[in-house]
Design a protein that fits this description.
The chain is of the alpha/beta class. The chain has helices at about 10-25, 40-50, 65-75, 105-110, 145-155, 165-170; strands at about 1-5, 35-40, 55-60, 75-85, 90, 115, 140, 160, 175-180, 185-190. The strands form 3 sheets. A 5-stranded mixed beta sheet has the order 2-1-3-10-4, with helices on both faces. A 3-stranded antiparallel beta sheet has the order 8-5-9. Strands 6-7 form a two-stranded parallel sheet.
């Protein structure tokens, strides 16, 4: 009865791909029950704190790190870094900027930024997008990955992410182009402090 919470279009790709690989390994197992939850950042933390999930996949950056570490401590959670990565612009292959080698914020200003809705706990620290405090001329909030991907194509929208794309899950109609920034993302998982992972 293992459960992983994941958030963000970026992290959901990571979570979903790893989850699929775990399921493939259990294909011949006589008996198992797994669950994956695609949810808001605050719910990822709550699910792990309340033992609904063993692991939650999140990211930290310079902006949210101290606040998130305080929240982890208050909820008896520990964060384990998996890797660091640059920030990428995730967009459809037909987007006017999809052929560029690198994209600036100025070039993105005429296109809608897509972001995951955080519900009642809409703190900047819980935001799924890396630069949550910037003023965007056009912002569209969605609460599921399929809608986000459709809006990328239908409205030339974009989101900011780790650059990891799983074509098997999302199709091959999307690209990740480096954003012209020095900002880094630290991808990792949270679990209950001292708890053994099954």
């Amino acid at each position: 009865r293992d459960s992983i919470s994941g958030c963000n279009v970026v992290l959901n790709t990571i979570t979903a791909e790893v989850f699929k690989e775990a399921c493939d390994r259990l294909e011949n197992a006589p008996d198992f029950e797994l669950a994956v939850h695609e949810t808001k950042t605050s719910e990822v933390i709550e699910n792990v704190h309340n033992y609904r999930s063993e692991l939650g996949i999140l990211y930290l950056n310079d902006f949210n790190r101290k606040a998130m570490q305080k929240i982890f401590a208050e909820n008896e959670l520990e964060f384990t870094e998996l890797f660091q990565c640059d920030v990428y612009v995730y967009l459809g292959n037909n987007h006017p900027l999809a052929s560029k080698d690198k994209i600036t914020f100025e070039e993105l200003s005429d296109y809608p930024c897509l972001s995951f809705e955080q519900g009642d706990k809409n703190s900047f620290y819980f935001a799924e997008e890396v630069f949550s405090t910037l003023q965007y001329k056009q912002m569209i909030k969605a609460d599921d990955r399929a809608t986000m991907l459709n809006l990328m194509v239908g409205m030339n929208g974009y989101t900011l992410c780790s650059g990891i794309i799983c074509e098997e899950l999302n199709g091959d109609g999307y690209s990740a182009i480096p954003l012209d920034t020095d900002e880094k993302m630290t991808i990792g998982y949270i679990k209950r402090r001292g708890m053994h992972i099954s």
